[in-house]
Specification:
The structure holds two protein chains of two kinds. Chain A is mainly β. Chain A has no helices and eleven strands. By secondary structure, chain B is an all-beta fold. In chain B, strands 2, 4, 5, 6, 8, 9 and 10 form a seven-stranded mixed sheet that branches. The termini of chain B are far apart. The relative contact order of chain B is 0.34. The chains are: A mainly beta, B mainly beta. At the A-B interface, β5 and β10 of A face β4, β5, β8 and β9 of B.
């Protein structure tokens, strides 16, 4: 059974940092591209970042470029999102999502982890 | 930048009725990369449709997708109580529509 489990969310002050993790199981993690998607309270879905299966190709939304860093450790079946210089508008539930073999849609999602940026 | 506009914002229907949800792109997009998701309160999104018209694994056949170019449709033929949720379209990984809330009338 495919499972994605996010962790690392919490309350952080503006300008602070947080590192999210996504533990994957039930599939060959190293064969799949992965993404982070976020959802602000009561709002819609916003794609945040993409990483290829090997980690060699990375993309970011303009809203997080220069502040967030996506990475993965295929030996540990884990995906990460390092978030720096956090702003109030980064407050959201952050989901990791598996991309189906580069076809641009997400076939499995984690349950999400809440990040709250507030003083 | 392609923008996806979903309509209506809220759709009020009764169980057993047919639901038609629209997703319009600001410019022509490949139907191969058009997907639909369902999200219930407190849950992660669930993939329903990919490639504009292919049902994901385990999705009931009352859900169908169609369309091409700039206009795409998600149809639920006969609404079941568990279908009332928010639905999002997505194009090419990066762009989501703003969502349509399907509520019980």
């Amino acid at each position: 059974e495919v499972q994605l489990v996010e962790s690392g969310g919490g309350l952080v002050q503006p300008g602070g940092s947080l590192r999210l993790s996504c533990a994957a199981s039930g599939f060959t993690f190293s064969s799949y591209e992965m993404n982070w998607v976020r959802q602000a309270p009561g709002k819609g879905l916003e794609w945040v970042s993409y990483i290829s299966s090997s980690g060699s190709t990375i993309y970011y939304a303009d809203s997080v470029k220069g502040r967030f860093t996506i990475s993965r450790d295929n030996a540990k079946n884990s995906l990460y999102l390092q978030m720096n210089s956090l702003r109030a508008e980064d407050t959201a539930v952050y989901y990791c999502a598996r991309e189906f073999h580069g076809d641009y849609y997400f076939d499995y999602w984690g349950q999400g982890t809440l990040v709250t940026v507030s003083s | 930048e392609i923008v996806l506009t979903q309509s209506p914002g809220t759709l009020s229907l009764s169980p057993g009725e047919r639901a038609t949800l629209s997703c319009r792109a600001s410019q022509s997009v490949s139907s191969s990369y058009l997907a639909w998701y369902q999200q219930k309160p407190g849950q992660a999104p669930r993939l329903l449709i990919y490639g504009a018209s292919s049902r994901a694994t385990g999705i009931p056949d009352r859900f169908s997708g169609s369309g091409s170019g700039t206009d795409f449709t998600l149809t639920i033929s006969r609404l079941e109580p568990e279908d009332f949720a928010v639905y999002y379209c997505q194009q090419s990984r990066y762009t989501f529509g703003q969502g349509t809330k399907l509520e019980i009338k």
